[in-house]
Amino acid sequence: MRIGLIGAGAVADLHAAAAEALSGLRLTAVCDLVEAAAGRVAGPAGAAVFTDYRDLIDSGLVDAVIVNTPHGLHRQMVTDAAQRGLHVLVEKPMATTLADCDAMRDACHAADVTLVVGHIQHFLPEKVAVQSLLADGGHGPVVMIHDYRTTDYRPTTRSAWFFSPQMAGGGALMNIGAHCLDRSTWLGGAPAEQITAATARRFGVAVETDGALRLRLANGVPVSISVVSDTPHKADDLTIVCERAVITASPRLGVHVQQDGRTRQIRKRRPSDIPDAFRAQLSDFAATVDGRPARVSIEHARHVVELVLAAYRSAELRETVAVRPTATHAAA
Ligand SMILES: NC(=O)c1ccc[n+]([C@@H]2O[C@H](COP(=O)([O-])OP(=O)(O)OC[C@H]3O[C@@H](n4cnc5c(N)ncnc54)[C@H](O)[C@@H]3O)[C@@H](O)[C@H]2O)c1
């Protein structure tokens, strides 16, 4: 499968390296508005360089694209690629509105091409290890989840589009909170049915820089999520309280289980964890193109966007907001 990469920003090298590492896949084209950025990522693979994504998707050089651009561009790029018969892996969050999510899903369905959203959490080795522990069931059911992630939304710390409500669809919650909502609902075992949120907007930027969320999942599991900007210490700490043990996971510290006052380390961090996750994600995408079910469903990716938008509503109204599970969720 010949892969075209649209957007040569922060994680482009990881996508490109994954495409080059997997057998049966090749990176054949890269597009970025900034030609030098596209050229830098395309270079090692000898891939063609474009500065207009429409030229890339019309080039006949690719069978699939990875859409790795600002959130507000996902819809148009995905629907255009689908109309050219190209399979699509689009970065998280799927889009900035539910109407856009639905248009993307429908366009790919109508064109009979695969659409997968890159929710990397499902491929990070430490999160996969947590999921195996939970599936094993030995620690009893999940009774609550706490998720704390730091970030930095001071101006100039990231590309300007992240501070545009229109282009980014929101701030720290749409970007980083999306990872927390994804992994909490995935590992918590059910979609959320209600959410209460507060947001803060600091540093004079136009989007929220911090957020605190409380969710109740449809199976009754309570979840609390905090995303905080510009902190003294960086953190990416997931705590899952089960009936008979507490599991913690962080990319830096690995996975630990606490039971009866004893701590066991289940997994240590490895330097290759992140590249391995991007390879596993792309491999899953290729398998999905071959007809296997994707590890992350479109319903799940859409639900993440639904929850971020519900959080914004809750913060604005200062009240708890109900989220009605879709028919697919209800059946699952
Ligand atoms: N999975 C993860 O862990 C992870 C990490 C970082 C970013 N992301 C996601 O990746 C996407 C991109 O974010 P980023 O951090 O790489 O942003 P970025 O600003 O670093 O890169 C975006 C790139 O897109 C290019 N671009 C903008 N408009 C374009 C257009 N019309 N045509 C072609 N190229 C265009 C920009 O020039 C820039 O190089 C977002 O959806 C983001 O949420 C995911």
Topology:
Blueprint (H helix, E strand, L loop, with lengths): L1 E5 L5 H10 L4 E6 L3 H8 L5 E3 L2 H6 L5 E4 L6 H10 L3 E5 L6 H14 L3 E4 L6 H12 L5 E10 L13 H4 L3 H17 L3 E9 L9 E8 L4 E8 L6 E7 L3 E5 L3 E6 L2 E6 L5 H17 L8 H20 L3 E2 L4 H5 L1
Parallel strand pairs: 1-2, 1-4, 2-3, 4-5, 5-6, 7-10
Antiparallel strand pairs: 7-11, 8-9, 8-15, 9-10, 11-12, 12-13, 13-14
Characterise this structure:
- With 332 residues, this protein is α/β, with parallel strands linked by helices.
- The chain folds into 2 domains: 2-118, Rossmann fold; 122-269 and 297-331, 2-Layer Sandwich (Dihydrodipicolinate Reductase, domain 2), CATH 3.30.360.
- 37% of the residues lie in helices and 27% in strands.
- The protein contains 11 helices and 15 strands.
- The strands form 2 sheets. A 9-stranded mixed β-sheet has the order 14-13-12-11-7-10-9-8-15. Strands 3-2-1-4-5-6 form a 6-stranded parallel β-sheet, sandwiched between helices.
- Helix 1 packs across helix 9 (273-289), helix 4 (74-83) runs parallel beside helix 5 (98-111) and helix 8 packs across helix 10 (298-317).
- The chain is globular.
- The relative contact order is 0.15.
- The mean pLDDT is 97.
- It binds nicotinamide-adenine-dinucleotide.
- The site of nicotinamide-adenine-dinucleotide has 23 residues, from loops.
